[in-house]
């Protein structure tokens, strides 16, 4: 497995992110490995692997996405595989017209350190950008670098210019010619490139998943976010399983798919044949029983007919006995009606009295309401008086104070009394004048206000009249306009009718209308005639269709009979040909031609004898096989030829009794000297073939033990000791048959084994041949016997004759169908002609009818035009009159408005004058003494003002002191103010307040407050009582309204008719109501009595009618059974008649039921057969017998049951043979599928095992990050479910009608889910800060994980999947799972514990991490041993932005010595590699 060490980008990228000459170096930052040894004598050195975790930093918008697109384009060829390719962008946007772009990746092998170069070159054909995709040139290549050709010295530039596209390829090919170790490879297709990378150990499928993970910045979570656990399982298995590994399974299914697809049909037909055979036999038996029971019901019918005649006579007698009862019932009904009317009148009187009572109650309530209203007013005055006591008291106090000061002034002014009197007299005169003038102003203001109000009222009236006149004028003009429009519209329509050709000129409208009406009448008659002809043809059509159905049915029956007869003949011929073609039959008859009809009995006998002969030979061979079986098995196990079975059994019996015994041959085989063995065999052959004991002391015990009958032997078996075997004796026979050396010699035993095996193979072959011959002969004898049973002598000839008759019937039926079809065609043709003519006439009639309707409407409206013109003229004149009236009223309204405005303005002026005069008067001393009753001075007000001013001035010079006068003036002003306040109160309230102040409660403030509270409570109580009275009045009014409405709804007439005399008060009403109720109760009782009498009479009539009706019903029920009326009627009651009728009916029904039941059994059996053959299960079968059964009615099924049975039995045997072969193929497929399913389940378990986390992760220590939970089915049920999966794949549809693919992967996925019916639950560990071992379902990751946790889980799942793919492809020892290149995962998951977890799992599973980011988070970045910082600088001259490597920060933490508790400071240098120069720029910092 390779790791990415360097990325070289040259002359590629858009103008905003241009990679002109950029090298991203991830090399020499990992752990050391042993270098690659190119040849036997080359030296080997350690090399450093690339950084296991790196970050490429570049600000957002700088070109990270461009870098990802370019890198992935090397590994994933094709436009649709571009990272983020969904946005429509292509790599052609990254290559300029004169660019030769290079993207080169250098890889380092994780075990050997060998370098690998994979690159891609891009350019535009003709150095011109084009919209045509074919003009964009792309070429991939790879090679193993050497000292002469590597990443650092690629022939990209020559003499400062980029090599052309083809020149670059030529240069590489030239280098490959010089050094074949480069192994340069140029793929011809994308598939070649993908396969080459796979052979090199670069799994491109992993980069396809990474492409989805990099669809958006930080969006790797979406690639592993599954809505269900099942989807995740499918995703994992699809990622690991290879389609080519499952191709044999798919091919196996495809090979037998036709038979498997038809398996359901064959099973269906087999079920149909079995079910039909099971239903035909009861159908035939039930038909035989049905014939016996049809005669029994005829006898019961005669008895029932006699009984029907007697019942009819009884009905006639009962009808004649109903006279007189009807009249009695009518008289009773009239009496009930009279008493009912009397009760209704009393009920109306009660309602009238109740209405009168409600009216009287309403009057009383209204009087009470008026009283309470006055009481409430008085309570209001009382409250206002108590509230005004403070004002009145203040007025009295101020008046007293002014009087007191006035007295003091009076005492001190005695010497100035004349002047004071003169001033007072002048003030009083002025006050009287001012008071009189103010009164005049007030009177004038009141008169003006009243005048303004009158003018305003007159203005309103004038305005109203104006608006009315305007409305009338507008309405008249609108109506006149309407008439004008009507006249115009009619005239236009007449002109349009003339232009449309409906009439010649307006004057001919009426004549044209009359002519069209006559034409419409003629056309209507013709339409009626055509409709009658059409109806006759329509009525004839059902008859023809019925004839056609009958002919079709007959033809179909004939065709089915012919098909059945033909099929029977063909089946007989086919079976005969197949049997006669059997060579075995000719062999048995010892002739070339087999005549089955004649030779069948002989063949059946010969085949039976041959089968018996085969059986005897097989038994003989098996006996011989059993004889050699013991020896063969012993020799096969590497042992010697065993001694006789009786010797072994005897030895076993002795050993069981603790006597050590050996077969002679076994003892002899232990002797290594062959000559010695031969000598002993020659001397003691009987002992060698016998049993040897270790001790002679055991001879007697052995004789006793072996004396049992179980150990008797048919051959010579000698028992002796081993000593006797070693001793020579003269009693030994001089000649014996030679013994088999394989009893004691290994070489001879091996030779014997070969001979026995040869005999075993020969016998096995012979037995197999005999078994096969016996099975073939058994099959043949079964077929011959079936032939003899199905086709006895002359049966085939009868079938042929039946076929010929069926053919003749079919020809006749076909001719009848043709005749009916011709008649139907003639009818259809006439019907079509009638329909066409009917449609034409109908359209003509519709057009003519529309014309007549339009002309009629036009004529009617034309007659109205003179009247409309007169109406319009009158409306226009009326509008003019109304306009003049409106104008006149408008002028009047303006005048009145002006007068009202002047009056209001003058009234306001008079009010202001009055206010000024009152103020002036209030300031005068002694003004309170002036009143309206005083005589007004003769002088004018200005003169009086001058006089008062002179008197006041004289008094001021000679009068009292200033302070006392000022105090008096203040007191007088205060008194004047309080006087005005009191005058504002009404006289009633002011007088009541003065009276209240004289009461004890008014003597103090506390008393007045308490009295006010009492008055307010009294006011509230009175108000509540008044409100209750108002509510009661509303209730009474509503009651009166309801009663009056109820009375009006009854429409009983005037209420006075029921109130004689009219009650004067409520008590009289109550008395009258009680009397009326008593009378109504008596009338109601009388109604009930009369109704009871009527009910009794009606019941008597009903009983009589019921008797007549019952016997009538019974006679009606027996009408069908009545032959002729009987002379003697039935004398019993209806119950006995009904019982006898029931008995006779039950007797007949029982007889009929017996016949019907047997017939029903036949029908039921037929229906069962029809239901079975017509069921939806067999709807698509279409077998010949099925069609015949379905076409045969229920009555004819029993007659044809036996022939159908004879035809179905051979078909059942054929179907069973086909199913057996199909099942064998199906079992083979299911076995293969089960193996692949077990492998897939093993992959899931392997994924769980591979996801085990490394140590040092807290609670996650050695925990499995991924865990599967499922329950497998038992083997039998699993085989059944897998068979269903295979069946659905063969059919191409699942049970719920979803499309099913037949690929190997799709089969395995469906099999996995079928083997786990409860589903597969997938759990993952939830990353958190404490690494607590909390698991969540994969399907809930999106809901419960945070963004960083989702991303971390996605990275861990990817690492697990990559390790699983590596493990599945045999790279388990390398412990490397490839590269993960992600765009900005740090932006979503920058927490330390998440980054540690990502790195730990990636390191444990061998995944190299390379992240890009635009977030400079030093806390997160320092978690990575290598950081490459890119910079995007603008070139103003070329209007481009170029990317360059700004810094390469490499961590050295691994190289630090162990901690000694002290700190060390070291320096780090960051180098900025030059863009084009080979020299390093100066250091940017230390």
Outline the secondary-structure elements:
Elements lengths: L1 E11 L6 E7 L6 E3 L11 E3 L4 E5 L6 H12 L24 E10 L5 E10 L11 E8 L13 E2 L2 E2 L2 H14 L11 H11 L3 H10 L15 H12 L6 H9 L1 H34 L5 H25 L4 H88 L4 H84 L8 H72 L2 H7 L6 H41 L8 H12 L4 E3 H6 L4 H10 L1 H4 L2 E3 L5 H8 L12 E3 H5 L19 H45 L4 H128 L18 H18 L3 H23 L2 H11 L7 H46 L15 H52 L16 H41 L9 H8 L2 H4 L3 H50 L15 E4 L5 H17 L12 H12 L5 E5 L9 E3 L3 H4 L2 H22 L9 E6 L8 H14 L1 E7 L4 H4 L4 E10 L4 E11 L36
Parallel strand pairs: 5-18, 5-19, 12-13, 17-18
Antiparallel strand pairs: 1-2, 1-6, 3-4, 6-7, 7-8, 9-10, 11-12, 14-15, 15-16, 19-20
Helix pairs in contact: 7-27, 7-30, 7-31, 8-26, 8-27, 9-23, 9-24, 9-25, 9-26, 10-21, 10-22, 11-20, 11-21, 11-28, 13-20, 30-31, 30-32, 30-34, 31-32, 34-35
Keywords: Coiled coil
Organism: Actinocorallia libanotica
Protein name: Chromosome segregation ATPase
What would you say about this model in short?
The protein is of the alpha+beta class. The chain is built from 36 helices and 20 strands. The two termini are 38 Å apart.
Walkthrough of the structure:
The protein is an alpha+beta fold and 1486 residues long. Among the domains are: 2-203 and 1425-1443, N-terminal domain of mukB (3-Layer(aba) Sandwich), CATH 3.40.1140; 328-413 and 960-1055, Orthogonal Bundle (Helix Hairpins), CATH 1.10.287; 419-501 and 891-941; 642-739, no CATH class. Helices cover 65% and strands 8% of the residues. The protein is built from 36 helices and 20 strands. The strands form 6 sheets. It has a 5-stranded antiparallel beta sheet with strand order 2-1-6-7-8, covered by helices on one side. Strand 6 and strand 7 (115-124) form a beta hairpin. Helix 7 packs antiparallel against helix 27, helix 11 (509-580) crosses helix 28 (1184-1191) and helix 34 runs parallel beside helix 35. It is extended, with a radius of gyration of 66 Å. Keywords: Coiled coil.
């Amino acid at each position: 497995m390779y790791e990415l060490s360097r990325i070289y980008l040259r002359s590629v990228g858009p103008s905003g992110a241009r990679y002109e000459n950029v090298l991203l170096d991830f090399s020499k930052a990992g752990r050391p490995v042993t270098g690659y040894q190119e040849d036997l004598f080359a030296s080997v050195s350690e090399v450093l692997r690339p950084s296991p975790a790196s970050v490429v930093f570049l600000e957002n918008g700088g070109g990270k996405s461009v870098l990802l697109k370019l890198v992935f384009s090397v590994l994933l060829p094709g436009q649709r595989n571009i990272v983020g390719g969904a946005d429509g962008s292509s790599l052609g946007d990254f290559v300029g017209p004169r660019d030769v772009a290079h993207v080169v990746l250098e890889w380092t092998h994780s075990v050997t350190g060998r370098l690998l170069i994979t690159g891609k070159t891009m350019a535009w054909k003709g150095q011109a950008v084009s919209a045509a995709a074919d003009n964009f040139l792309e070429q991939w290549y790879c090679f193993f670098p050497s000292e002469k050709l590597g990443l650092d010295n690629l022939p990209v530039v020559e003499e400062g210019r980029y090599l052309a596209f083809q020149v670059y390829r030529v240069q590489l090919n030239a280098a490959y010619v010089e050094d074949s170790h480069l192994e340069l490879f140029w793929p011809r297709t994308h598939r070649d490139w993908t396969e080459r990378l796979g052979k090199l150990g670069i799994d491109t499928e992993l980069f396809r998943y990474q492409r989805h993970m990099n669809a958006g910045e930080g969006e790797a979570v979406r690639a592993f976010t599954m809505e269900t656990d099942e989807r995740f399982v499918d995703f994992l298995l699809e990622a690991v399983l290879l389609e080519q590994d499952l191709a044999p399974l798919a091919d196996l299914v495809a090979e037998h798919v036709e038979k498997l697809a038809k398996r359901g049909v064959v099973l269906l037909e087999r079920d149909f044949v079995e079910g039909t055979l099971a239903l035909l036999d009861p159908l035939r038996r039930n038909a035989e029983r049905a014939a016996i029971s049809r005669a029994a019901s005829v006898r019961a019918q005669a008895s029932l007919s006699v009984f029907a005649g007697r019942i009819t006579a009884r009905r006639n007698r009962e009808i004649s006995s109903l006279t007189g009862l009807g009249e009695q019932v009518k008289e009773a009904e009239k009496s009930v009606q009279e008493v009912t009317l009397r009760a209704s009148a009393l009920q109306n009187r009660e309602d009238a009295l109740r209405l009168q009572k409600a009216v009287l109650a309403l009057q009383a309530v209204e009087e009470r309401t008026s009283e309470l209203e006055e009481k409430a007013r008085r309570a209001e005055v009382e409250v206002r008086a108590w509230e005004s006591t403070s004002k009145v008291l203040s007025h009295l106090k101020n008046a007293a104070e002014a009087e007191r000061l006035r007295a003091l002034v009076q005492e001190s002014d005695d010497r100035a009394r004349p002047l004071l009197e003169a001033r007072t007299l002048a003030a009083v005169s002025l006050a009287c004048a001012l008071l009189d003038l103010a009164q005049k102003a007030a009177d004038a203001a009141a008169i003006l206000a009243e005048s303004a109000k009158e003018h305003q009222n007159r203005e309103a009236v004038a305005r109203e009249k104006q608006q009315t006149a305007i409305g009338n004028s507008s309405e008249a003009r609108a109506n006149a306009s309407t008439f004008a429009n009507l006249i115009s519209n009619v005239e236009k329509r007449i002109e349009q009718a003339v232009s449309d050709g409906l009439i010649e000129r307006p004057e001919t409208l009426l004549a044209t209308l009359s002519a069209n009406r006559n034409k419409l009448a003629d056309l209507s008659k013709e339409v009626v005639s055509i409709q009658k002809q059409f109806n006759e043809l329509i009525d004839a059509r059902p008859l023809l269709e019925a004839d056609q159905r009958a002919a079709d049915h007959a033809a179909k029956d004939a065709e089915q009979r012919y098909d059945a007869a033909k099929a029977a003949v063909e089946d007989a011929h086919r079976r005969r040909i197949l049997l006669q073609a059997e060579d075995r039959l000719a062999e048995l008859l010892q002739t070339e031609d087999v005549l089955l009809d004649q030779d069948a009995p002989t063949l059946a006998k010969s085949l039976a004898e041959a089968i018996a002969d085969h059986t005897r030979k097989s038994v003989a061979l098996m006996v011989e096989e059993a004889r050699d079986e013991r020896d063969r098995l012993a020799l096969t196990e590497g042992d010697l030829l065993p001694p006789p079975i009786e010797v072994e059994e005897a030895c076993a019996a002795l050993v069981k009794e603790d006597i050590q015994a050996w077969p002679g041959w076994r003892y002899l085989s232990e002797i290594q000297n062959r000559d010695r063995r031969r000598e002993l065999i020659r001397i003691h052959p009987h002992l060698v073939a016998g049993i040897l004991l270790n001790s002679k002391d055991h001879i007697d015990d052995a004789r006793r033990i072996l004396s049992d009958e179980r150990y008797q032997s048919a051959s010579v078996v000698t028992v002796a000791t081993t000593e006797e075997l070693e001793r020579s004796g003269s009693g030994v026979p001089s000649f014996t048959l030679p013994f088999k050396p394989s009893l004691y010699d290994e070489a001879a035993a091996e030779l014997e084994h070969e001979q026995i095996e040869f005999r075993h193979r020969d016998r096995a072959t012979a037995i197999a041949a005999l078994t096969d011959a016996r099975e073939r002969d058994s099959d043949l004898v079964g077929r011959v016997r079936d032939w003899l049973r199905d086709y006895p002598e002359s049966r085939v000839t009868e079938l042929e004759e039946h076929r010929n008759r069926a053919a003749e019937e079919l020809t006749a039926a076909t001719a009848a169908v043709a005749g009916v079809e011709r008649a139907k065609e003639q009818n259809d043709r006439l019907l079509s002609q009638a329909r066409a003519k009917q449609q034409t006439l109908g359209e003509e009639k519709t057009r003519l009818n529309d014309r007549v309707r339009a002309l009629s409407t036009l004529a009617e409206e034309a007659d109205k035009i003179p009247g409309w013109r007169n109406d319009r003229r009158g409306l226009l004149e009326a509008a003019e009159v109304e306009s003049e009236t409106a104008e006149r009223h408008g002028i009047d309204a303006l005048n009145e408005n002006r007068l009202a405005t002047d009056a209001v303005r003058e009234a306001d002026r008079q009010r202001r004058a009055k206010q000024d005069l009152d103020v002036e008067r209030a300031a005068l001393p002694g003004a309170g003494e002036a009143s309206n009753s005083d005589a007004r001075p003769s002088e004018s007000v200005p003169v009086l003002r001058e006089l008062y001013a002179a008197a006041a001035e004289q008094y001021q010079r000679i009068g009292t002191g200033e302070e006392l006068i000022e105090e008096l003036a203040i007191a007088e002003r205060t008194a004047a103010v309080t006087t005005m306040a009191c005058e504002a109160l009404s006289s009633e309230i002011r007088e009541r307040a003065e009276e209240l102040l004289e009461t004890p409660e008014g003597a103090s403030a506390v008393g007045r407050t308490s009295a006010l509270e009492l008055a307010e409570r009294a006011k509230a109580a009175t108000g509540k009582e008044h409100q209750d009275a108002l509510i009661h009045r509303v209730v009474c009014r509503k009651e009166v309204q309801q009663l009056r409405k109820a009375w009006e709804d009854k429409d009983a007439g005037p209420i006075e008719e029921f109130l004689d005399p009219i009650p004067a008060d409520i008590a009289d009403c109550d008395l009258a109501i009680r009397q009326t109720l008593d009378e109504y109760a008596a009338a109601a009782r009388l109604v009930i009595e009369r109704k009871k009498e009527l009910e009794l009479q009606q019941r008597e009539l009903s009983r009589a009618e019921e008797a007549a009706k019952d016997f009538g019903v019974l006679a009606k029920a027996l009408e069908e059974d009545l032959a002729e009326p009987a002379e003697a009627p039935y004398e019993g009651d209806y119950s006995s008649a009904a019982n006898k009728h029931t008995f006779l009916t039950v007797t007949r029904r029982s007889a009929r039921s017996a016949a019907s039941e047997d017939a029903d059994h036949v029908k039921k059996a037929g229906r069962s057969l029809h239901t079975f053959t017509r069921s939806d299960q067999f709807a698509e079968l279409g077998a010949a017998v099925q069609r015949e059964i379905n076409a045969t009615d229920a009555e004819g099924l029993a007659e044809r049951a036996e022939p159908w049975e004879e035809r179905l039995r051979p078909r059942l045997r054929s179907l069973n043979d086909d199913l057996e072969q199909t099942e064998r193929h199906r079992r083979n497929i299911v076995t293969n599928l089960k193996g692949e399913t077990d492998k897939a389940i093993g992959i899931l378990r392997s994924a769980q095992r591979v996801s085990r986390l490394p140590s040092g992760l807290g609670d996650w220590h050695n925990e499995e990050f991924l865990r599967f939970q499922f329950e497998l089915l038992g083997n039998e049920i699993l085989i059944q479910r897998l068979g269903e999966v295979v069946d659905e794949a063969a059919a191409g549809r699942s049970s719920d009608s979803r499309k099913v693919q037949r690929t190997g992967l799709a089969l395995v996925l469906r099999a996995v889910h079928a083997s786990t019916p409860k589903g597969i639950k997938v759990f993952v560990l939830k990353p958190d800060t404490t690494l607590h071992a909390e698991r969540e379902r994969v399907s809930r990751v999106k809901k419960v994980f945070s963004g960083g946790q989702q991303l971390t889980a996605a990275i861990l799942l990817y690492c697990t999947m990559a390790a699983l793919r590596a493990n599945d492809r045999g790279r388990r020892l390398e412990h490397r799972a490839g590269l993960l290149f992600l765009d900005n995962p740090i932006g979503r998951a920058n927490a330390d514990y998440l980054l540690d977890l990502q790195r730990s799992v990636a390191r444990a599973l061998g995944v190299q991490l390379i992240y890009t980011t635009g977030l400079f988070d030093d806390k997160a970045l320092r978690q990575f041993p290598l950081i490459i910082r890119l910079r995007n600088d603008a070139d103003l001259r070329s209007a481009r932005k170029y990317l360059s490597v700004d810094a390469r920060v490499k961590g050295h933490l691994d190289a630090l010595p162990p901690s000694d508790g002290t700190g060390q400071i070291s320096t780090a240098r960051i180098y900025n590699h030059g863009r084009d120069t080979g020299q390093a720029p100066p250091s940017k910092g230390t």
